[in-house]
Amino acid sequence: MKTETFKIFYTNGTEGTITIESKNITGQRGLFNITEMTRKGKIIYKNIRGKYRSGNNDVIELFDVEQLPLINEVDEETHFRNPTLNINGNKRLIDFMHYLNETV
């Protein structure tokens, strides 16, 4: 399977890469395969899935990884959510996300 690799920047100022298969998983609500993510040259995730969401922020929601605890301020219960990668300003990666969504 053909892959594409993009440079990414994390909120803490470090940089890394994300390598994505260039075809969506059909029938999986727009999920795509991420073969590898690195930070500071070290692999942090391998063989996970992602989903692109746009709006006020362009983000990739990461699946098949440990979920992050989130405390609800209303009921003070702990809920879990998938970690996200903010890709605002990364035009090349955002354009690729649009391409993936069109190939479903």
Tell me what the structure shows.
This protein is mainly beta and 104 residues long. The protein has one domain. 12% of the residues lie in helices and 51% in strands. The chain is built from one helix and eight strands. The strands form two sheets. Strands 1-2-3-4-5-8 form a six-stranded antiparallel beta sheet. Strands 6-7 form a two-stranded antiparallel ribbon. Strand 3 (32-39) and strand 4 (42-53) form a beta hairpin. 14% of the residues are buried. The model has no long low-confidence stretch (mean pLDDT 86).
SSE topology sketch:
Elements: E1 3-9, E2 15-24, E3 32-39, E4 42-53, E5 59-63, E6 68-71, E7 78-81, E8 84-86, H1 91-102
Antiparallel strand pairs: 1-2, 2-3, 3-4, 4-5, 5-8, 6-7
Give me the strand/helix succession: EEEEEEEEH
The largest pleated sheet is described as:
6 strands, antiparallel
The gyration radius over C-alpha positions equals 14 Å
| Beta content | over 45%
Tally of discrete structural domains = 1
Give me the count of strands.
8
Structural class: mainly beta
Main sheet: strand order = 1-2-3-4-5-8
Morphology:
globular
Between the first and last Cα atoms, what is the distance in angstroms?
16 Å
Protein traits:
104 residues; two-stranded antiparallel sheet
In short:
This protein has 104 residues and is mainly β. The chain has one domain.
